[in-house]
From TrEMBL:
Superkingdom per UniProt: Eukaryota
Family: Belongs to the phosphoglycerate mutase family. BPG-dependent PGAM subfamily.
Pfam families: His_Phos_1
Name assigned to this protein: Serine/threonine-protein phosphatase PGAM5, mitochondrial
InterPro entries: His_Pase_superF_clade-1 (IPR013078), His_PPase_superfam (IPR029033), Mito_Ser/Thr_phosphatase (IPR051021)
UniProt keyword list: Hydrolase, Necrosis
Record-listed E.C. numbers: 3.1.3.16
SMART domains assigned to the protein according to its UniProt record, in alphabetical order: PGAM
Keyword Hydrolase carried by entry: yes
Organism of this sequence: Echinops telfairi (Lesser hedgehog tenrec)
Protein backbone atom coordinates (compact mmCIF):
# COMPACT_ATOMS: atom_id res chain seq x y z
CA UNK A 1 0.00 0.00 0.00
CA UNK A 2 2.77 2.40 0.97
CA UNK A 3 4.58 1.66 -2.26
CA UNK A 4 1.49 2.35 -4.35
CA UNK A 5 1.05 5.68 -2.53
CA UNK A 6 4.68 6.56 -3.26
CA UNK A 7 4.14 5.76 -6.93
CA UNK A 8 1.11 8.02 -6.98
CA UNK A 9 3.15 10.80 -5.40
CA UNK A 10 5.90 10.25 -7.94
CA UNK A 11 3.42 10.47 -10.78
CA UNK A 12 2.13 13.77 -9.44
CA UNK A 13 5.64 15.11 -8.93
CA UNK A 14 6.90 14.02 -12.35
CA UNK A 15 3.82 14.83 -14.36
CA UNK A 16 2.95 18.07 -12.64
CA UNK A 17 6.47 19.14 -11.74
CA UNK A 18 7.77 20.87 -14.85
CA UNK A 19 4.34 21.84 -16.01
CA UNK A 20 3.23 23.27 -12.69
CA UNK A 21 6.20 25.23 -11.47
CA UNK A 22 8.52 25.93 -14.30
CA UNK A 23 6.63 29.07 -14.39
CA UNK A 24 4.98 31.98 -14.29
CA UNK A 25 8.22 33.50 -13.21
CA UNK A 26 9.27 34.00 -16.74
CA UNK A 27 6.08 34.88 -18.54
CA UNK A 28 7.28 37.87 -20.49
CA UNK A 29 4.71 39.83 -22.47
CA UNK A 30 4.92 42.17 -25.43
CA UNK A 31 5.18 45.88 -24.59
CA UNK A 32 1.78 47.47 -24.25
CA UNK A 33 0.77 50.22 -26.63
CA UNK A 34 -0.16 52.60 -23.83
CA UNK A 35 -1.79 52.98 -20.44
CA UNK A 36 -5.29 52.50 -21.83
CA UNK A 37 -4.38 49.79 -24.32
CA UNK A 38 -6.15 46.48 -24.04
CA UNK A 39 -4.14 44.04 -21.96
CA UNK A 40 -3.48 40.49 -23.07
CA UNK A 41 -2.02 37.36 -21.58
CA UNK A 42 1.75 37.45 -21.17
CA UNK A 43 3.75 35.16 -23.41
CA UNK A 44 6.70 33.23 -21.95
CA UNK A 45 10.12 33.60 -23.55
CA UNK A 46 11.72 30.63 -25.27
CA UNK A 47 13.77 29.55 -22.25
CA UNK A 48 10.67 29.34 -20.05
CA UNK A 49 8.35 26.39 -20.44
CA UNK A 50 5.36 25.12 -18.51
CA UNK A 51 2.39 26.88 -16.97
CA UNK A 52 1.76 28.54 -13.64
CA UNK A 53 0.14 26.47 -10.88
CA UNK A 54 -3.51 27.18 -10.03
CA UNK A 55 -3.96 30.30 -7.86
CA UNK A 56 -3.56 29.61 -4.18
CA UNK A 57 -2.04 26.16 -4.68
CA UNK A 58 1.38 25.65 -3.09
CA UNK A 59 3.73 23.48 -5.13
CA UNK A 60 5.73 21.42 -2.59
CA UNK A 61 8.27 20.47 -5.25
CA UNK A 62 9.03 24.04 -6.34
CA UNK A 63 12.79 23.50 -5.98
CA UNK A 64 12.75 19.97 -7.47
CA UNK A 65 14.07 18.57 -4.18
CA UNK A 66 11.09 16.61 -2.95
CA UNK A 67 12.53 13.16 -2.12
CA UNK A 68 10.10 11.33 -4.40
CA UNK A 69 11.36 13.39 -7.36
CA UNK A 70 14.97 12.47 -6.58
CA UNK A 71 14.45 8.71 -6.55
CA UNK A 72 13.91 6.54 -9.60
CA UNK A 73 11.08 4.38 -8.30
CA UNK A 74 11.18 2.26 -11.45
CA UNK A 75 14.51 0.79 -10.39
CA UNK A 76 13.21 -0.66 -7.15
CA UNK A 77 14.27 -4.14 -6.18
CA UNK A 78 11.21 -6.38 -6.50
CA UNK A 79 12.22 -8.43 -3.46
CA UNK A 80 12.95 -5.54 -1.07
CA UNK A 81 10.20 -3.35 -2.56
CA UNK A 82 8.61 -0.91 -0.15
CA UNK A 83 11.35 -1.17 2.47
CA UNK A 84 14.06 -0.23 0.00
CA UNK A 85 12.00 2.62 -1.43
CA UNK A 86 11.32 4.04 2.04
CA UNK A 87 15.04 3.93 2.81
CA UNK A 88 15.95 5.69 -0.41
CA UNK A 89 13.33 8.38 0.12
CA UNK A 90 14.54 8.96 3.67
CA UNK A 91 18.11 9.28 2.41
CA UNK A 92 17.02 12.17 0.14
CA UNK A 93 15.13 14.13 2.79
CA UNK A 94 16.52 17.48 3.89
CA UNK A 95 17.23 17.72 7.63
CA UNK A 96 18.32 21.33 8.13
CA UNK A 97 16.79 24.78 7.71
CA UNK A 98 18.40 27.42 5.51
CA UNK A 99 18.32 31.06 6.63
CA UNK A 100 18.98 33.36 3.69
CA UNK A 101 19.75 37.03 4.29
CA UNK A 102 19.36 39.15 1.15
CA UNK A 103 21.14 42.50 1.49
CA UNK A 104 20.64 45.37 -0.92
CA UNK A 105 23.83 47.33 -1.66
CA UNK A 106 24.27 50.76 -0.10
CA UNK A 107 23.73 54.15 -1.76
CA UNK A 108 26.03 54.75 -4.73
CA UNK A 109 26.94 57.39 -7.31
CA UNK A 110 24.20 56.85 -9.89
CA UNK A 111 25.74 59.32 -12.33
CA UNK A 112 28.85 57.23 -13.05
CA UNK A 113 29.28 56.81 -16.80
CA UNK A 114 30.75 53.34 -16.40
CA UNK A 115 29.70 50.61 -13.99
CA UNK A 116 33.09 50.71 -12.26
CA UNK A 117 32.52 54.43 -11.54
CA UNK A 118 29.28 53.77 -9.66
CA UNK A 119 30.99 53.53 -6.30
CA UNK A 120 29.44 53.99 -2.88
CA UNK A 121 28.77 57.51 -1.65
CA UNK A 122 30.05 58.55 1.81
CA UNK A 123 26.52 57.95 3.11
CA UNK A 124 26.50 54.58 1.37
CA UNK A 125 29.64 53.58 3.22
CA UNK A 126 27.98 54.58 6.50
CA UNK A 127 24.95 52.48 5.60
CA UNK A 128 27.14 49.44 4.92
CA UNK A 129 28.82 49.88 8.30
CA UNK A 130 25.42 49.95 10.00
CA UNK A 131 24.26 46.85 8.11
CA UNK A 132 27.44 45.02 9.03
CA UNK A 133 27.01 45.94 12.69
CA UNK A 134 23.40 44.76 12.59
CA UNK A 135 24.30 41.39 11.08
CA UNK A 136 27.12 40.91 13.59
CA UNK A 137 24.77 41.76 16.48
CA UNK A 138 22.48 38.85 15.56
CA UNK A 139 25.05 36.44 17.00
CA UNK A 140 24.63 33.96 14.16
CA UNK A 141 27.32 31.75 12.71
CA UNK A 142 27.19 32.83 9.09
CA UNK A 143 28.43 30.22 6.65
CA UNK A 144 29.28 32.41 3.66
CA UNK A 145 28.71 35.66 1.82
CA UNK A 146 27.80 35.48 -1.87
CA UNK A 147 27.76 38.83 -3.63
CA UNK A 148 27.11 40.40 -7.01
CA UNK A 149 30.24 41.22 -8.98
CA UNK A 150 29.04 44.79 -9.62
CA UNK A 151 31.10 47.57 -8.02
CA UNK A 152 28.47 48.84 -5.57
CA UNK A 153 27.73 45.33 -4.30
CA UNK A 154 31.41 44.45 -4.00
CA UNK A 155 32.17 47.61 -2.02
CA UNK A 156 29.19 46.97 0.25
CA UNK A 157 30.52 43.44 0.83
CA UNK A 158 34.01 44.78 1.65
CA UNK A 159 32.60 46.89 4.46
CA UNK A 160 30.14 44.32 5.83
CA UNK A 161 32.84 41.62 5.80
CA UNK A 162 34.92 43.60 8.28
CA UNK A 163 32.21 42.98 10.87
CA UNK A 164 32.03 39.26 10.08
CA UNK A 165 35.64 38.09 10.20
CA UNK A 166 36.32 34.58 8.97
CA UNK A 167 33.20 34.32 6.83
CA UNK A 168 34.22 33.30 3.32
CA UNK A 169 32.96 35.36 0.39
CA UNK A 170 32.23 34.47 -3.22
CA UNK A 171 31.57 36.80 -6.16
CA UNK A 172 29.13 35.86 -8.92
CA UNK A 173 27.78 37.45 -12.10
CA UNK A 174 24.43 35.71 -11.63
CA UNK A 175 23.40 38.23 -8.97
CA UNK A 176 24.14 41.33 -11.05
CA UNK A 177 21.32 43.86 -11.38
CA UNK A 178 18.87 43.53 -14.25
CA UNK A 179 15.24 43.52 -15.37
CA UNK A 180 13.84 40.12 -14.29
CA UNK A 181 10.41 40.16 -15.91
CA UNK A 182 7.98 42.72 -17.32
CA UNK A 183 6.23 44.24 -14.30
CA UNK A 184 2.47 44.30 -13.87
CA UNK A 185 1.10 46.93 -13.71
CA UNK A 186 3.37 48.10 -16.53
CA UNK A 187 5.58 51.17 -16.52
CA UNK A 188 6.05 53.22 -19.66
CA UNK A 189 9.70 54.08 -19.03
CA UNK A 190 10.90 50.53 -18.39
CA UNK A 191 13.25 48.44 -20.50
CA UNK A 192 12.43 46.70 -23.81
CA UNK A 193 11.44 43.05 -24.12
CA UNK A 194 14.92 41.93 -25.24
CA UNK A 195 16.37 43.03 -21.90
CA UNK A 196 13.78 41.08 -19.92
CA UNK A 197 14.59 38.05 -22.05
CA UNK A 198 18.32 38.26 -21.34
CA UNK A 199 18.32 39.44 -17.73
CA UNK A 200 15.34 37.30 -16.79
CA UNK A 201 17.06 34.04 -17.73
CA UNK A 202 20.14 34.97 -15.69
CA UNK A 203 18.22 36.11 -12.62
CA UNK A 204 16.03 33.01 -12.79
CA UNK A 205 19.24 30.95 -12.95
CA UNK A 206 20.41 32.70 -9.77
CA UNK A 207 17.14 31.79 -8.08
CA UNK A 208 17.37 28.13 -9.08
CA UNK A 209 21.03 27.92 -8.13
CA UNK A 210 20.84 29.56 -4.70
CA UNK A 211 17.26 29.42 -3.41
CA UNK A 212 16.21 25.90 -2.44
CA UNK A 213 15.91 23.66 0.60
CA UNK A 214 19.06 22.31 2.24
CA UNK A 215 20.97 19.41 0.75
CA UNK A 216 20.18 16.08 2.40
CA UNK A 217 23.81 15.88 3.58
CA UNK A 218 23.52 19.13 5.54
CA UNK A 219 23.13 18.28 9.22
CA UNK A 220 22.89 21.73 10.85
CA UNK A 221 20.91 24.87 10.06
CA UNK A 222 22.79 27.35 7.87
CA UNK A 223 22.92 31.15 7.75
CA UNK A 224 23.93 32.64 4.40
CA UNK A 225 24.26 36.24 3.22
CA UNK A 226 23.60 37.37 -0.35
CA UNK A 227 24.59 40.96 -1.16
CA UNK A 228 23.08 42.12 -4.42
CA UNK A 229 20.41 44.43 -5.88
CA UNK A 230 16.82 45.52 -5.42
CA UNK A 231 15.39 43.96 -8.59
CA UNK A 232 17.11 40.64 -7.93
CA UNK A 233 15.95 40.51 -4.31
CA UNK A 234 12.37 41.47 -5.15
CA UNK A 235 12.14 38.81 -7.85
CA UNK A 236 13.65 36.15 -5.57
CA UNK A 237 11.13 36.95 -2.83
CA UNK A 238 8.19 36.64 -5.22
CA UNK A 239 9.48 33.36 -6.66
CA UNK A 240 10.30 31.84 -3.27
CA UNK A 241 6.85 32.64 -1.88
CA UNK A 242 5.19 31.52 -5.14
CA UNK A 243 3.62 34.94 -5.60
CA UNK A 244 3.13 36.24 -9.16
CA UNK A 245 6.67 37.31 -10.09
CA UNK A 246 5.31 40.12 -12.28
CA UNK A 247 4.54 41.94 -9.03
CA UNK A 248 8.21 42.42 -8.13
CA UNK A 249 8.15 46.17 -8.84
CA UNK A 250 5.41 46.67 -6.24
CA UNK A 251 7.97 45.98 -3.50
CA UNK A 252 10.34 48.70 -2.32
CA UNK A 253 13.74 48.16 -0.67
CA UNK A 254 15.99 50.67 1.09
CA UNK A 255 19.73 50.76 0.56
CA UNK A 256 21.56 48.42 2.93
CA UNK A 257 18.31 46.72 3.91
CA UNK A 258 18.01 43.15 5.20
CA UNK A 259 15.48 40.65 3.84
CA UNK A 260 15.32 37.32 5.67
CA UNK A 261 13.98 34.17 3.99
CA UNK A 262 13.65 30.82 5.78
CA UNK A 263 13.48 27.54 3.87
CA UNK A 264 12.41 24.54 5.96
CA UNK A 265 13.44 20.92 5.30
CA UNK A 266 9.96 20.18 3.94
CA UNK A 267 10.31 22.98 1.37
CA UNK A 268 8.03 25.46 3.13
CA UNK A 269 9.22 29.06 2.81
CA UNK A 270 8.68 31.97 5.21
CA UNK A 271 9.58 35.64 4.90
CA UNK A 272 10.81 36.86 8.28
CA UNK A 273 11.68 40.41 7.24
CA UNK A 274 11.45 42.42 4.01
CA UNK A 275 13.77 45.38 3.47
CA UNK A 276 14.47 45.99 7.16
CA UNK A 277 16.40 49.20 7.94
CA UNK A 278 15.03 49.77 11.44
CA UNK A 279 18.60 49.64 12.71
CA UNK A 280 19.50 52.82 10.78
CA UNK A 281 18.82 56.39 11.97
CA UNK A 282 16.05 57.97 9.85
CA UNK A 283 18.46 60.48 8.30
CA UNK A 284 20.61 57.62 6.96
CA UNK A 285 17.84 55.82 5.06
CA UNK A 286 17.71 56.08 1.26
CA UNK A 287 16.28 54.09 -1.66
CA UNK A 288 18.38 55.34 -4.59
Amino acid sequence: MAFRQALQLAACGLAGGSAAVLFSAVAVGKPRAGGDAETRAAEPPGWAVGVRPPPGVWDPNWDRREPVSLVNVRKRNVESGEEELASRLDHCKAKATRHIFLIRHSQYHVDGSLEKDRTLTPLGREQAELTGLRLASLGLKFDKIIHSSMTRATETTDIISKHLPGVCRVSTDLLREGAPIEPDPPVTHWKPEAVYYEDGARIEAAFRNYIHRADARQEEDSYEIFICHANVIRYIVCRALQFPPEGWLRLSLNNGSITHLVIRPNGRVALRTLGDTGFMPPNKITRS
